């Protein structure tokens, strides 16, 4: 039976990425050695790293004045690296979920954190509007896509202080105007690569403005100067990222990806909205994530939740269980998810609904 992988992350990757990475594990770049056992300083891997960085910039249209660095530690380490490198006294955070909260918590170790708005009052099922940014803050931090709650800030915001974004779960899902951001970072394990790789797109002129000494490994400058080779990079995830970037380019780039993602999301949200059994947890279409679609059973069908879960699993739907803080279901439909899988999920929902 075909499996449809709706996991929130690590998550579905293009077959192209998985196949090419598997081949390189057996024989890397014609060396007769596995990707897993070659020196990261060898010319073959240095070429991979250079190409990955260049293609990352090309696909995302990263303007001059920015550098892309690959580090370890996940997005979670960026929660600390961002304030370490940028915060003097005060930083502003938009609290749209658990990850934003965790990011703000780290920043509190470095100074005052102003929460410009929060959607905690409704279990983060919307993006707060109409808030203002303190002009004396060193930066504003946002989470562009809230993986757990299925909300997304789909526009590149205009703010008058440096803007920092955690884009772990929507990077490469749409074209982004990087020039509006000081830093965009994320874990790679959704739209790019397996876990173990973290990216940060850093505007060079935002660095060097804090007084404190920064540990070498936590200093963006280290990784910029050493082209992400200060220490041993995670070679396999980097190689896989390169394959995904090639796949993105071959498939028409981010405009095409965005169109496809919108189509998939619209199809699924429409099916949920017109269902007698399911309802979306995010009401405002503007706030609905095109990457993570969260839905629950309507109250009158609440007791069928487990039954639907089991039914969907029996039909090959993998990991559609919602995060424990939301409940219900979450279908993560990242770039690599074909529309056929979304249709298969809708068929399963309809079949289940008909039989009850
Ligand atoms: N931010 C967001 C939006 C996420 O979805 C996640 C992980 N799901 C994280 C941060 C944490 O990422 P990591 O596990 O790479 O530290």
TrEMBL record:
SUPFAM superfamilies: PLP-dependent transferases. The keyword Amino-acid biosynthesis applies. Residues 5-345 form the Aminotransferase class V domain. It comes from the Bacteria. GO terms for cellular component: cytoplasm. It is found in: Cytoplasm. Binds 1 pyridoxal phosphate per subunit. The modification N6-(pyridoxal phosphate)lysine is found at residue 190. Its main location: cytoplasm. It catalyses: O-phospho-L-serine + 2-oxoglutarate = 3-phosphooxypyruvate + L-glutamate; 4-(phosphooxy)-L-threonine + 2-oxoglutarate = (R)-3-hydroxy-2-oxo-4-phosphooxybutanoate + L-glutamate. Its cofactor is pyridoxal 5'-phosphate. Pyridoxal 5'-phosphate binds at residues 75-76, 99, 147, 166, 189, 231-232. Gene3D superfamilies: Aspartate Aminotransferase, domain 1 (3.90.1150.10), Type I PLP-dependent aspartate aminotransferase-like (Major domain) (3.40.640.10). GO terms for biological process: L-serine biosynthetic process; pyridoxine biosynthetic process. Keywords: Amino-acid biosynthesis, Aminotransferase, Cytoplasm, Pyridoxal phosphate, Pyridoxine biosynthesis, Serine biosynthesis, Transferase. Pathway: Amino-acid biosynthesis; L-serine biosynthesis; L-serine from 3-phospho-D-glycerate: step 2/3; Cofactor biosynthesis; pyridoxine 5'-phosphate biosynthesis; pyridoxine 5'-phosphate from D-erythrose 4-phosphate: step 3/5. Belongs to the class-V pyridoxal-phosphate-dependent aminotransferase family. SerC subfamily. NCBIfam families: PRK05355.1, serC_1. Homodimer. PANTHER family: PHOSPHOSERINE AMINOTRANSFERASE. Catalyzes the reversible conversion of 3-phosphohydroxypyruvate to phosphoserine and of 3-hydroxy-2-oxo-4-phosphonooxybutanoate to phosphohydroxythreonine. This is Phosphoserine aminotransferase. It comes from Breznakibacter xylanolyticus. The gene is serC.
């Amino acid at each position: 039976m075909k499996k449809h992988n709706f996991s929130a992350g690590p998550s579905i990757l293009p077959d192209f990425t998985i196949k090419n990475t598997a081949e390189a594990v057996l024989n890397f770049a014609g060396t007769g050695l596995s990707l897993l056992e070659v020196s990261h300083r060898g010319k073959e891997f240095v070429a991979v790293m250079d190409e990955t960085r260049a293609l990352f910039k090309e696909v995302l249209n990263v303007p001059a004045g920015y550098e892309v660095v690959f580090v370890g530690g996940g997005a979670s380490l960026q929660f600390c690296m961002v304030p370490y490198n940028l915060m003097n006294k005060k930083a502003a955070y938009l609290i749209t979920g658990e990850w934003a909260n965790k990011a703000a918590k780290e920043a509190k170790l470095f100074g005052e954190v102003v929460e410009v708005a929060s959607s905690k009052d409704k279990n983060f099922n919307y993006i707060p509007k109409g808030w203002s940014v303190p002009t004396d803050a060193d930066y504003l931090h946002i989470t562009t896509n809230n993986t757990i709650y299925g909300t997304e800030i789909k526009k590149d915001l205009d703010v008058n202080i440096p803007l920092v974004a955690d884009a772990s779960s929507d990077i490469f899902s749409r074209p982004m105007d990087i020039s509006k951001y000081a830093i965009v970072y994320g874990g790679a394990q959704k739209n790019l690569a397996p876990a173990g790789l973290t990216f940060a797109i850093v505007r060079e002129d935002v660095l060097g403005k804090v007084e404190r000494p920064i540990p070498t490994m936590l200093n963006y400058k280290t990784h910029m100067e050493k082209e992400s080779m200060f220490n041993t990079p995670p070679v396999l995830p980097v190689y896989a990222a390169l394959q995904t970037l090639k796949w993105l380019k071959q498939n028409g780039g981010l405009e095409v990806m965005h169109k496809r993602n919108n189509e998939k999301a619209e199809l699924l949200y429409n099916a949920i909205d017109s269902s007698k059994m399911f309802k979306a947890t995010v009401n405002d279409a503007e706030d609905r994530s095109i990457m993570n679609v969260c839905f629950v059973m309507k109250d009158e069908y609440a007791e069928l939740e487990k039954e639907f879960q089991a039914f969907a699993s029996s039909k090959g739907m993998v990991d559609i269980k919602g995060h424990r803080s939301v409940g219900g279901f979450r279908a993560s439909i990242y770039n690599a998810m074909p529309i056929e899988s979304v249709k298969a999920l809708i068929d399963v929902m309809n079949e289940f609904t008909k039989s009850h």
